[in-house]
Design brief:
The protein is mainly α. The protein has one domain (about 1-135). Helix content is about 70%, strand content about 0%. Helix 3 packs antiparallel against helix 4 and helix 4 (about 75-95) packs antiparallel against helix 5 (about 115-135). The protein is globular, with a radius of gyration of 16 Å. The two termini are about 25 Å apart.
């Protein structure tokens, strides 16, 4: 099925997936302390783990987003995006099930106000699906990441 996708559609998927991860990573890297507070709000990891994740995760998002956008090692970068999206969906779903009223922290900062859990899960699911398609197809006319 993925082999029947128009190369233009695949390019648009690369722009969306890569762009979202590049932008969200760049926003988070500006204030790791605020992002750490967002991570802690999920009540899934310790303070130290949240601080480490807040420090390094944004850089990973920037690197994989840039790789997808550039068409470099797309399969590997998109696999990382899919894995991260799955983790994000699990964390958001966990917060929702436990009745936590938190902002997701997706775009950096500690955020304020309640998360719209269904929309965050839907958005991550869309990124997850597009990333899986890109894993299978790589970059049209470019580096699939298989070498």
């Amino acid at each position: 099925m993925a082999s029947q996708i128009n190369p233009t559609v695949l390019f648009v998927m690369r722009l969306i997936v890569g762009g979202v991860f590049l932008i969200t990573g760049a926003l988070k890297v500006r204030d790791p302390e605020a992002f750490s507070i967002s991570i802690q709000a999920y009540r899934l990891v310790s303070f130290g783990v949240a601080a480490a994740v807040a420090t390094y995760l944004p850089w990973l998002e920037i690197v994989v987003g840039a790789a997808v956008l550039a068409g470099w090692k797309v399969a590997g970068a998109a696999a990382s995006v899919a894995a991260l999206s799955a983790v994000f969906m699990a964390a958001i779903g966990s917060a929702w099930v436990r009745g936590l009223d938190i902002a997701c922290g997706c775009f950096g900062g500690a955020g304020s106000g309640a998360a719209s859990y269904p929309w965050h899960i839907l958005g991550n699911a869309a990124l997850f699906v597009m990333a899986l398609i890109l894993v299978r197809r790589g970059a049209p006319g470019g580096d699939s990441g298989a070498g």
